[in-house]
Amino acid sequence: MENVGALAVLLAFCIAIYAIVASVVGKLKGRPFLILSARRAVYAVSFLVTVASGILVYALMTSDFRFAYVAGHSNRDMPAIYKFTAWWGGQEGSLLFWSWLLSTYSAVVVFQNRRKLREIVPYVIAVLSFVQVFFLTLNAFIVSPFQMLAVDKVVTSVADGLGLNPQLQYYAMAIHPPMLYLGFIGFSVPFAFAIASLITKQPGDAWIHTTRRWSIVAWLFQSCGIMLGSAWAFDALGWGGYWMWDPVENCSLLPWLAMTAFLHSVMMQEKKGMMKVWNIVLVASAFFLACFGTFLTRSGVVSSVHAFAESPIGKYFIGFLAIGISGTVYLILDRLEYLKSESELESVVSRESSFLFNNLLLLASCFAVLWGTLFPVISQAVTNEKISLDAPWFNRLMIPIGLGLLFLTGVGPLFAWRRTSVESLRRNFMIPGLLACLLAVGLFAAGIRNYWAIVSFGFCLFVAATIMSEFFKGAHAIGQKNQMNFARAVVELTHRNTRRYGGYLVHMGIVLMFVGWTGTAFNKNTTAEVNVGNSFSLGPYTMKVADLNQGDNQNYKWESAILEVTKNGSPIGTLEPERRFYKASQQPLGHVALRNRLDDDLYINFASGEGRTVTLQAYIFPLVSWIWIGTLILVFGTLIALVPSKVARQYARTQVVGLAEKHVPVEN
Amino acid sequence: MNKYVKFSALVVVVIGTLIWLASANIQDSSTYYKTISELNQMPAKAKEQRLRVGGDVEKGSITRKADVVEFNLQQENMHLRVSYDGRDPLPDTFRDGAQALADGRMGPDGVFHAHKIQAKCSSKYAAKPGEAPAGLKAVPPVRKTI
């Protein structure tokens, strides 16, 4: 069976190469049957990679320990769900998973456009297949998941596997990697369309319209993936935090930042025909940063607390990135004249300018994160000293950038296109501005002296107020006109322009996440060594160790402390932090006890226990729940933006001197 | 004023501020990475700065005294005695044979005083590709020689 798997990967590799050749030759020579065969080749690759993945998953589920991969990442007593997730729990499997998702995406794209866009689809097939060939090269020749265990060329198996890393045996971790991968790989579709439209010198924005939903869906998956990873770090790792600017975290953030910039700047191209080169640069950056992230986490170039393999695939990735990036740069430079802007900036206080600064800040943050992550490599190359930049460096840069972006979130959507009058500024921003100032003064009076926090809360209220007033004004007008009650008018308003109001909801989610992040400024923590019967306190909470418990199951042994918790003297229940010892991997792991409330989270980690004495770490995280609430609203808003608008409105493009007048219907 | 001048001025101000933020006080938030052999070759004075040293935890070398954990970091055949007196309990992944990173300063006694330890389990997720349990080795599925 393993031979069938390896053969499927090998065949898929050959057919993907055929797809590149057939689609390009078919297009250049005008042979429709070749293009048709290239389309079918894409389906065939998808089928073959699915077969290979099925075999690996079957081996994992049936604990076939002849497979080196299965023996290394699974064991008999692991719950079935984690046996399945071991598919992407290790290097070889996760690369096969990459290939599988890419092949599925490619097949869907080809099917969706089977009767459309005949000009560019052959090149889309070529670009996607080129990426696929690279990943299949890794799967077939470099890190094959179908390696068998053998002694002297006789295949054998081991009695039991090593098990999945216990830290990964957690619900968020079961879905976090596939979410990230869905996002990462989703970027390859808009990228392929952008490149294809460059190659064919398409004058219009067809690639942007075709891939708008792809971009948003990919962005949504990636946002979920990052936040699930963050939630996992918070709930499962026990180091008391959700983000520490570790290289692996940064790698997931980089393409997200580029894609966020892209989602904003495409509006400039759709509405005004500006920033065409920029958009292609952004979508290509997002794609290459996603590949770069996959490479960095597997190559051991920068050290990370996340244990990943040092493996031979680094040089292949560098080769792939070098070819891809130089090809893209060449194409953009060669086609510059097809990408001329159709209008000009008119005023510093305008929608255009707010988009421009939004992009500037997002790109600056992307560059800063990249710089900080690669600083050990850069400094070693320049000064021969390996220097790493720590979390305080990132925070010092990212807090002002984040606040700047938050501010633009508030003002940008209310600026008019082209230029904004003083009168409209006053009308739109007077009340939110006043509210924000009042809040800031109130917080200062309440004794808060963390100025970043005051500014951040002020901005949060400002942005929230502008968004609410947009909904209120729009819904009020509709309600008056159509005799609707307010709630129905809000739904009607949103339905009329889902993209705009969905976008506002996403902004609202971001505001709530900022509220949660700002809570970090007021974190408290303590470490206490306590005997059973004694208590310790942190902030308003007092924890009394009532008893210790222990037990055993197939997967792990555990011991726990039963804590009676009181807040300001009144009892609020018990918490039971736990410490587990996983048998297969011989690894201990804390299981944090959490009390989530909207005002703050109490977080207790069982660090170690000896006899009747336990060492406990307690943390208070004010407002942290708002990060997760904000994430849910962000997801909801993005889904709304994906719903087609009720009224497909026509937008006239600004007429530009020197270019023929165009009235392109644009879905808003 | 020309609008492009205004734009450029704003962009320059934003980027300038960020560069200033990125480069000012960089010493406070940066750590020098050293291997044990590099550490041994450093002049005495240079050893006083904040350093981060990486290596494997030597098997059987972990000793726990009141409030202090001592262990040896090992890299090939070089050893470094590390004394950890930080406030936080050691991470779960810290144990014999794990890869560890110690943040701290070199003491005059030749012992590295760490205030922070990071560790990762070297056996899992990080197994070298194709590496298998003892006695076995991984081979590609099609083994016949043609």
Molecular structure report:
- The complex is a heterodimer of chains A (668) and B (146).
- Chain A is of the alpha+beta class and 668 residues long.
- Among the domains of chain A are: 1-164; 522-622, no CATH class.
- In chain A, 61% of the residues lie in helices and 13% in strands.
- Chain A contains 19 helices and 13 strands.
- Chain A has helices at residues 2-29, 32-61, 68-73, 80-85, 91-112, 121-142, 171-186, 188-199, 206-237, 247-272, 276-299, 314-334, 351-383, 391-411, 422-445, 451-482, 486-496, 498-519, 625-642, and strands at 148-151, 154-155, 386-389, 524-531, 535-538, 541-552, 556-567, 570-575, 578-582, 587-591, 593-595, 600-610, 613-622.
- In chain A, strands 5, 6, 7, 8, 9 and 10 form a 6-stranded antiparallel sheet that branches. In chain A, strands 4-13-12-11 form a 4-stranded antiparallel sheet, with no helix packed on it. Chain A has a two-stranded antiparallel ribbon with strand order 1-2.
- In chain A, a hairpin with a 2-residue loop joins strand 5 and strand 6.
- In chain A, helix 5 (91-112) packs antiparallel against helix 6 (121-142) and helix 9 runs antiparallel to helix 10 (247-272).
- Chain B folds into 2 domains: 1-30; 32-120, Nucleic acid-binding proteins (OB fold (Dihydrolipoamide Acetyltransferase, E2P)).
- Helix content of chain B is 18%, strand content 33%.
- Chain B has 2 helices and 8 strands.
- Chain B starts with a helix and ends in a 7-residue tail after the last strand.
- Strand 1 of chain A pairs antiparallel with strand 8 (137-139) of chain B, so a sheet runs across the interface.
